[in-house]
User: Fold this.
Amino acid sequence: MIAFEVQDMTCGHCVASITKALQAADPLAVVEIDLGRHRVQVEPGRADAAALRVAMEDAGFTPVVLAG
Assistant:
């Protein structure tokens, strides 16, 4: 599981945009989002943390990878 902090994720539309971006980058990924904690957790299928981060950045967000 790869965890990101995304402080600029503020609403349900943000959640939908991030989910869509991550699933486009890795269709096999399982995405869990906690809007209140600004946390995105991904169980990747094929993509690595860098590719997932770039997908969220391309969608307009600023994710930070959280350690272990």
Remarks:
- Residues 10 and 51 are 22 Å apart (CA to CA).
- The longest strand covers residues 30-34.
- The beta strands are 2-5, 30-34, 39-43, 64-65.
